[in-house]
TrEMBL record:
Residues 1-21 form the signal peptide. It comes from Nocardioides terrae. Keywords: Signal. It comes from the Bacteria. This is MspA protein. The keyword Signal applies.
Amino acid sequence: MLKLAALSLCASLLVAVPAGASRPPDATVPAPVATHPAHDVRLSGAGGGTLSLPGFAGDRVRFRLTASVPPDRPLDVHGRFRVEHVSADGRLLARFSGAFDCLMTGGGVAVATGLITSGSAPGLPGEPEIVGRRIGLTVADRGPHDRLGWSWLVMGFHDVAGCTGIAPFFPVTRGGFAVRGDTDLAEEAR
């Protein structure tokens, strides 16, 4: 419905002017509408570090995240994620990837959700079935002191609601992430 309304608005703003013709200023012609780049809200990067959590101390985690959306349409996301968790002794505990389905940002923090499309968690307790699950990720872009949060730490691999996440509890010690732009839902409220 929102796309249809936007298309109707764009169509109503078109003014037919023959190629090469100029038009004198006219009060009845609407002023140019400011446009945003196609995707100026972004989350990107790769990073991780070593866990100090009980039961996982010394394990290494790595995340690769790339997502972008128009600032006023957080569900129109394009992007993917990849996660790897390896035990301190080198055993693969989990490796999976998927597609983001929502991205919202503000003040250097991104909350993103996505569906796992491939992978497994052979070394995690109970070997959970993870393909098809919606997970949540939160990234705080703090320059060299980025932080991450992931929903399955608290909830296990149970689906989360779209665009929901957990506090970014984990300090990134290798690599880094960039959060650019702020989601602007003011248009929806008008």
